[in-house]
Structures are given as C-alpha cells and as structure tokens.
Queue: 2 jobs
Job 1
Amino acid sequence: MGLVPVSDLLKAADAGGYAVGAFNCNNMEIVQAIAAAAEAERAPVIMQASQGAIKYAGIEYITAMAKTAASLVNVPVALHLDHGTSFEQVMQCIRAGFSSVMIDGSKHSLEDNIALTKQVVAAARPVGVSVEAELGKIGGTEDDIHVNEADAFFTDPEEARVFVRETGVDALAVAIGTAHGRYKGEPKLDFARLEKIRSLVNIPIVLHGSSGVPGDAIREAIRLGVRKVNIDTNIREAFVDRCREIIAAYPDEIDPRKILGPAREAAVELIREKIRLFGSSGKA
Ligand code: G3H
Ligand code: 13P
Ligand code: ZN
C-alpha cells in the first residue's frame, strides 16, 4: 500500500470509537518495528518523524524507509511530520512525500498560531495532505520547543472552538495534563476539559506525551474523543533497554545486528501492546 493521510485513518477511528497509534521513528529498526507491529495486529498505523529525527536520519531516508515499509505490509500506514514549527519545514515534508503534517504554533499567540496554521492548511489540503495543529502548551522538552512545567498551560476550550473554526485543521493536539518524556509522578489528565473541548470542536483530538500515561487514563481519553495517541519515549526505553541488556550480557559482541535485532523485537512487542490498548487492533 502507499502512504495514506492521517485524516483518513482518524475518520475511521472516530466512527469506530478507537484511536490510532502514532509512533515516532528515527532509524530503520524502529520503522521496521512499527510496520511489523501494525501488520501483526492488523491495525492502521501512523509513523511520525520529528524535526530532530529528520535532522538525524535525513528526510530522504525517513521518507524512503516509511514508503518501503508501507509497500511491504497489508495495513494502512501514514507518514506524519511531528511538531513541525515552520511553514518551510512543512513544505519540505510535503515535497518529500509525507502524507500528513503537524504545524505546532503553540508557542505563538492565538492569532499568530491561527495565521500560521491557516497558511499550512491552504498549502496542504489541495495536495491531499492532512494537518494537525496544537493549541495550549504540552509540558516537557520538544525539539526546538522548550516548555518548563511552570510555563506549560492547558488548552482553553473556547479558544479551541475558535481555532478549529478559523483554521479548518483535520486534528487538534490539546494540552490536558500530559507531558513529553518521562513522568516524575503519575500524570493527572483533565478529563472535564477534554470533554468540554470535544463538545465544542467536531474533529479528532490528539494526545501527545502518552508514554507513561496509565492504561485506564488512555482508555478514558479515547472514550472522550482522542483519536490519535503519540508514543515516543516508551519505544526509546524498550529499544535502548534491550541494547543495554545485550551489551551487558555479551560485552565482547561487536556485531550491531546482534544488538539492534533484539532491540527491534522489543520495540515490536511494546508497539503491539499500545495498539491493543488504543483499540485499533483488527481495524485495518
Ligand atoms: O514530541 C517529541 C517527540 O518525542 C520527538 O522527540 O524531538 O527528540 O525527536 P525528538
Ligand atoms: P512521549 O515521548 O512522551 O511518548 O511523547 C510523544 C509525542 O507526543 C510525540 O509528539
Ligand atoms: Zn508531541
């Protein structure tokens, strides 16, 4: 199959009351793990690359790997830009063949975020690329965006209504208590806020910083309208922990395949568990 827009996957998820997993990839093994997990679960899946991943791997490699993975499996796969911060970055990804982009204007004022997001929608929609935007600041450290916890603030439901009406975005990332990276304590999600947002905007909601959020909270967020769940940190942990275990057990090992192969398997298992949690298993 070729790459599909995220909006197609999220429309089906909305109708079915489940969420699609959006998994960050930086290298070949993780791209392969995402594809293998989706195929094993018969699930639609989103591969996403941050600006940092694009800088690390190169946009040609990221696009070619995702396209190859999509062509080898029999489930729908989207390639999505995660936290794009400029119109230029979005255009580079659209030209390279991404099927979906996120424009993260959350560090700007509401007016400037609306203006930037509108510009992206105007460029992306005619070429069939879907657009996710962010309103409110999600805590933690993102590539090119540093929000300390005191600065992080939640999405205002009324602003969300205006933002969606003005921009026409396909999906909205909201700040309701999740944060990127590892949590210090247990995250507390503001479900009342999520419910209010969802009652005012009629588009799929995206949950960022979902690694480490307890399963019950993820299920409740999906019940209240979350249709795309972003996972990066948990994949990094599964992958790197397995690398560490192998290196500790076999300190003389010099074949990268003997280390990265099992790490890839660990990532497959983790991603399969997440897909089942999100309810998208069997939905391809
Ligand atoms: O939301 C951020 C993702 O975890 C990507 O992280 O910018 O280090 O690739 P990164
Ligand atoms: P985590 O790394 O906390 O899972 O967040 C991923 C994310 O939101 C990517 O945009
Ligand atoms: Zn994010």
Job 2
Amino acid sequence: MKRLSIGVRLMLWYVAIFAMGELIFGASMWLILRHNLYDIVDDSLESQMEDLGSFLQAQKKDATAAKLQEEVNETYAIEHSGDYLQLHLETGDLIYRASFLEAHPSLLMPPDQINRPKFRSRYAAGKHFRFTFQKMQANGHTYTVEMGVPADDAVETLNLFRSYLLMFAPGLLLVAAVVGYWMSRRALAPVDALVQTARAIGGANLNSRLQKLETGDELQRLSDTLNEMLDRIEIAFLRVTQFTADASHELRTPVSLIRTEAELALRRSRSEAEYKESLRHILLEAERTTTLIEQLLALARADSGRETLHMQPVDLRQTLGSVSDAWRQVATIRDLQFSASIDDPDAFVMGDEAMLRRLTDILLDNAFKYTPSPGAVRLGLEQKDESAVITVQDSGVGIAPEDQSKIFERFYRVDKARSRAQGGTGLGLAIAQWIVTQHRGTIAVESRPGEGSTFRVDLPKIAAPVQNAQPA
Ligand code: ADP
C-alpha cells in the first residue's frame, strides 16, 4: 500500500488529537452540566422532603396507621408533591402510595433496602424523574419515604447540549483538518523546494547546491548536510574525471612512442641491428605501459573497494629481509651503496604481506631511481612503543619543500622527464599511501634538495603471535 505523505499524516494526527480533545472536553462539559442540573432538581426534592417532615411531625404522637393514612391521603392526594410519593411506617404498614407509582412499581425500591438517603434517576412512561429514597424520623415514628419529582426539563437541556456538541463537532473537525493541512504544508514547503532543486542536480551541474535554509531547525540541518554531501560527491567526481583524463593522457604517450618507433622502422629497409634496436625500444615502452596499466588497475580496485587485503600477523623483519636481498643486486648494477639495518627483534604488524612488500618495493624503487651514482640507499626497521617504523633513506636528488606534500597525489611528478626516463608513472607513492592507510599507518617524507630524502612509514605494532609447540 502506498504510504501517505508526511503532510497528510501530520494532518491526520492533528485531526485525531483534536477529535480526542473535543471528545474529552464535550464529555466533561456534559457530565458537569448533568451534575449541576440534577443538583437543582435534587434541591427541590430536598425541600419537598422537608415539607413532608414538618407535616409528619405535626401528626398526633399516638395516631394509628389508619389515622395517618387518612391524614396523609387528605393532604398529599391533592398536592403535586404527592404525585410520586410512597410512605411506609417502620412496621411495614403502607401509609401512602401515589397512583402513578401503583402503575409503575419499577420506579421504587423495596423499603427494607432503604437505609441511607439516596438520589437516583428514573425513567417510566416516557418521563424522566429524580427520586430520593430515605428514612425519616418524625414524632416518634420512623418512616420510609420514596419521593420523586419530574426531571424532564433537566434531561431535555442535557439532550439539547449534546445535540449542539454533535452538530458542531464535524464542523470543528473540518476546520482542524484544513488548518492542520495548511500548517503541515507550510512547515514542509522548504522540503518540497529542496526536492525540486535536488532533482535538477546531475553529473552535468554537480556544482549546484540546494537553497540554503535559515530556519535554524532540522530542515536547515538537512539542507546543510545534503550540501556537504554534494561537496564530497563533487570532489570525488572531479577526482575520477581528472584521474580518467590523466590516465588517458599517460597511456597515449607510450602508445604513440611505440607507433612512431614502428613507423620509423618500417619507412625504409634497415639493418638487422637497427630493427633489433627499434624492437628493444618498443619492448621497453610496452613494459612501461604494462606497469602503468597494472598500477591504474590497482588504484581502480582500491577506489572501488574491491581490493581485499589478507590481514594476518606479519613479521616485518623477515619481509624486509627478503625484499632487501632482491634489491642488493640492483644496487650493484646501478653502482649504488645499499645497506639494510633490520636487526631489531621481531616487529609484528597486522597486515597483508604482499602489500607490505609492494610498499617497500615502491619506496626502494624511488630511492634507486632518484639517486644518481655514486650514492647510497638505506633501508631501516626500528621499533617505537606502539609502532614499527620502516625508513627508506637515500642520498639522491631530494624533493623541494613545496613538492613534498604533492608527491603522494596521483600522476604528480616533480620532474616529469626524469621520472619517465627512469620508468616512473607518477602512481607509485599514491599506491604506497593507499597501502599504508589500509594498514592504519602513516607515511611521511623528509627531504632536502640535493641532499637526499627519507621516507618514513609508521605501522601499528602487535604482539608476536604465540608459536604452537611442536609435538615431540
Ligand atoms: P614515479 O613513478 O614518478 O616515481 P611516484 O608516485 O613514486 O611516481 O613519485 C612521485 C614523485 O615524487 C616522483 O616523480 C619524484 O619526483 C618524487 N620522488 C619520489 N621518491 C623520491 C625520492 N626518493 N627522491 C626524490 N624524489 C622522489
């Protein structure tokens, strides 16, 4: 079932609460009015009772029941106050009973059940009455009196009041519904405005923002939050667009180099040595392109969250040990000094070993790329209270302070030609930073142009896992 709009729901709530209030108010007013009207009728009953009391008091003390019957009959048969009167002596002798009560005994109570004074509403022959049932002492006798008065006027007034209530209630509810709907529309009008603007925002106009509300309430918070979200989406969107543009640009360079090389080679016949040379160039560019594509894929996987890391306790000493072995040979070929100081006791971190290797490879690769011979590269592993620190230090070209914060950006290269000549893509440090972040670590650089650079990676340490005892 389609859910009702918030505006309609608010209106319905408003009407329901209003109806409830109206009901409680109407019922209370009706009860109060009834109580007051019956009080008036009961007062007149009381005064008739007082008259009856004086009358009985005036009777002779030793009058017999028959005599009393005669006296009461004489007076009350013609009095209005005798129209609904029944009187018994304590002996049970009936002294007087109005003819109406003969015809409608249901109005009465059995005399032996009458103790304390009671006032009751009664209905018979299409008429409403208030009756009182009480004992009365007069002149040495105890009488049981049952006396009524018509209460039609009071009941009619009550009924009239009720019909007025019922007559006005629907009108009031209608007014409540209209006012409720108007109020909810007014309160929610800014939401409609937000929806309209939000609908119009798409990829082509991501820089548009929702109208800034100054209502100081939840709606202002909502519009501010949505605008902040749009800021983040726009930044992410621009990053993706920029990344795609940069990636296409980067890919175009090696492909056009390969093409030019092949075209030149084919322009006229060449010696075998020249063909080999051309093919070597083509192969080099193809390898570079492969690296670039692999790095692009790695970043794309990282961005999409599809790159899953296999976290487990990793002994950094072992990992760095094997990485440094591989780089020793490179150092010899490039005529650079390479040293590794990773003799610290076990430095365990929670991590993905392959990723940590890749991270170290990227930093060492850069150190070797940007350190001309003769120079030195040093790989270090230290331990702090809470972290294991990997350092890669070189005595190379260094990085100017203004570039130090930018080198972790994708495709940022201080010296593009130099980076390309060294086989760089401008993506290495971006990948390194992603790996470090995934390991809840930090990466920082310290460098002076012409003196060298030190990259420092801090990773949170864990306790060395307990080795299972080998069965003897
Ligand atoms: P690249 O593939 O170009 O090396 P990186 O993302 O790994 O890309 O590095 C970005 C830039 O940072 C490099 O182009 C280089 O200018 C600079 N850089 C990185 N490491 C070093 C270093 N050890 N010494 C000097 N410059 C460096």
